[in-house]
């Protein structure tokens, strides 16, 4: 496991610690929170999404439904959130979020993170999906989370 990143949720006073575990290491213990993808189009640029009209940006993905595999969750989440289809996807590792204080104290969530080669298939408003170079995608991630995402981008060889 690499360095941890601490994050405070200002909405409810929760204190979270995030850690990155490469795919070559055993899956961290915790509740499956789904899958997200570094979605790379043919030009090498990445897809980022916003669910709040462009105020903040993140990687597309989704939470599991039923007995979906991690890859099935990824594929459905990428379509639902970004209107993209993955032709290839490589598991990079796992983001583990542990709540240390607040209303969810003790909760541990684990999300798989993938590098996916995608095609844009649905037209989405520019306020909800952007296709940008990797450095710009990283710069769009909220500042408090950026160091954590640098590890993910490095795992994919994008920075």
Account of the protein in words:
By secondary structure, the chain is α+β, with helices and mostly antiparallel strands. The protein has a single domain, classed as Nucleoside Triphosphate Pyrophosphohydrolase, CATH 3.90.79.10. The protein is 21% helix and 42% strand. Strands 1, 2, 3, 4, 5, 6, 7 and 8 form an 8-stranded mixed β-sheet that branches. Helix 2 packs antiparallel against helix 3. The longest helix has 13 residues. The mean pLDDT is 91.
Spell out the key features of this protein.
8-stranded mixed beta sheet; 159 residues; Nucleoside Triphosphate Pyrophosphohydrolase; alpha+beta; single chain; 8 strands; 3 helices
CATH topology: Nucleoside Triphosphate Pyrophosphohydrolase
Briefly note the structural class of the backbone: alpha+beta
- What kind of assembly state do the chains in view correspond to? single chain
Query: Beta-sheet strand percentage?
Result: 35-45%
List the helices and strands and how they pair.
Elements: E1 4-9, E2 14-22, E3 31-40, E4 46-49, E5 61-62, H1 70-82, E6 84-101, E7 108-120, E8 129-132, H2 134-140, H3 143-155
Parallel strand pairs: 3-7
Antiparallel strand pairs: 1-2, 2-6, 3-4, 3-5, 4-8, 6-7
Helix pairs in contact: 2-3
Question: TL;DR?
Answer:
The chain has 159 residues and is α+β, with helices and mostly antiparallel strands. The protein has helices at residues 70-82, 134-140, 143-155; strands at 4-9, 14-22, 31-40, 46-49, 61-62, 84-101, 108-120, 129-132.
